[in-house]
Amino acid sequence: MPEITYVVPDGSVHVVDVPAGQSVMDGSVRNNLPGIVAECGGSCSCATCHVYLEGEFADLFDEATDEERELLEYAEGAQPTSRLSCQLIVTGSCDGVRVTVAPEA
Ligand code: FES
Hints:
By secondary structure, this protein is α+β, with helices and mostly antiparallel strands. It has a single domain, classed as Ubiquitin-like (UB roll) (Roll). The protein has 3 helices and 5 strands, in the order ββαβααββ. It has a 5-stranded mixed β-sheet. The radius of gyration is 12 Å and the shape is globular. The structure holds FE2/S2 (inorganic) cluster. FE2/S2 (inorganic) cluster binds next to loops.
């Protein structure tokens, strides 16, 4: 099962197994990790699942939809590497991916 690393705002690092087909947000919520609130439950409308996804890992996921981009425009602390983790669907190639949870997620 792909292992995903989450760096959360308090600086702690959590490594969890996330089954392919689930989102990076699911992996955090199901393991009760701090940081990702996921208020809207993954329907791309709250931006409380905001993470930063560095270069080489970004290519492993589908590109952001217009809807996601628009939400991120208004998200606190948005950067070019920003993504909404509920839109990042884990596949078998995602083993070793590392995300940093945005401070205001
Ligand atoms: S959980 Fe709400 S936008 Fe991702």
